[in-house]
């Protein structure tokens, strides 16, 4: 090979590597709405073969959710003391309503406990804390919320996984382009992120009360819940409650409200 030919081969090889690197480059995250539309197009190109054309079409209908970003930047209630947190969340009301629901839905809670080992108290505490027993499930477009957070640079990797899960749920008919929920993409009575719906959902929409409560018990069991063991701080099942939410004050609130609902 001549020297000129050798240099030409090197140049061609370097050019091919550059093209490969460009192809492998991830969609560019951003911290303002201005880059969201370009990011969607890049993401959709990368997702071909991993997500269906129908789910990607639903993704392309999403819009940047300023409400999601505001909520993501403004989470302050977890800095409260336990008493302050319970007062803000309406702890006594949750207990009173939870006890009534435990009685009126006794057969459902008995079947859940037999299957997963989780008693009614912590499930009702979670349900009450998350949505006021289904009264407030959120009104933000779910796919837009998850896509916005996948685009946002703060936690892009985590929410990219959630977005792929959401696209799978679109294919399964559990989510669609019109589904609405909480600010971070949580859906249903107990506010599951898409990946948790895939992992712990027991079939169908979590806007169904039995589906949501079974999925919640399945989540706790999947995080180590042992039938018959205690769930207060320092007891074996408190670790499963810790899996539900990373905030210590939230964990303690679930344990305390659950104990009171269960009459302990």
UniProtKB/TrEMBL annotation:
Biological process terms from the Gene Ontology for this record are: peptidoglycan catabolic process
As one GO molecular function, the record gives: peptidoglycan lytic transglycosylase activity
Q: Which residues form the Transglycosylase SLT domain?
A: 36-231
Extract the signal peptide range: 1-26
SUPFAM superfamilies the UniProt entry points to: Lysozyme-like
Task: Write down the Pfam families for this protein, in alphabetical order.
Answer: SLT_2
| UniProt entry keywords in alphabetical sequence | Signal
Official protein name in the record: Transglycosylase SLT domain-containing protein
Organism of provenance: Methylobacterium bullatum
Q: What lineage does the source organism belong to?
A: Bacteria, Pseudomonadati, Pseudomonadota, Alphaproteobacteria, Hyphomicrobiales
């Amino acid at each position: 090979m001549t020297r000129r030919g050798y240099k030409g081969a090197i140049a061609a090889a370097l050019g091919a590597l550059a093209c490969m690197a460009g192809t492998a480059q991830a969609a560019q995250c951003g911290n303002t709405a201005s880059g969201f539309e370009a990011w969607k197009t890049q993401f959709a190109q990368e997702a071909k073969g991993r997500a269906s054309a129908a789910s990607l079409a639903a993704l392309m209908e999403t819009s940047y959710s300023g409400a999601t970003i505001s909520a993501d930047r403004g989470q302050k209630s977890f800095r409260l003391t336990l008493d302050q947190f319970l007062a803000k969340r309406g702890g006594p009301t949750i207990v009173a309503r939870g006890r009534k629901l435990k009685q009126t839905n006794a057969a459902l809670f008995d079947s859940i406990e037999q299957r997963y080992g989780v008693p009614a108290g912590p499930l009702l505490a979670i349900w009450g804390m998350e949505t006021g027993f289904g009264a407030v499930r959120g009104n933000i477009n779910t796919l837009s919320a998850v896509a916005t957070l996948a685009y946002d640079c703060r936690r892009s990797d985590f929410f990219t996984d959630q977005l792929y899960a959401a696209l799978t749920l679109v294919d399964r008919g559990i989510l669609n382009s019109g589904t609405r929920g909480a600010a971070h993409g949580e859906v249903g009575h107990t506010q599951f992120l898409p990946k948790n719906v895939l992992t712990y959902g027991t079939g169908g929409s979590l806007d169904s009360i039995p589906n949501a409560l079974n999925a919640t018990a399945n989540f706790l069991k999947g995080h180590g819940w042992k039938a018959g063991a205690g769930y207060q701080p320092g007891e074996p099942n408190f670790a499963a409650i810790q899996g539900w939410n990373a905030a210590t004050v939230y964990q303690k609130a679930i344990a305390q409200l659950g104990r009171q609902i269960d009459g302990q």
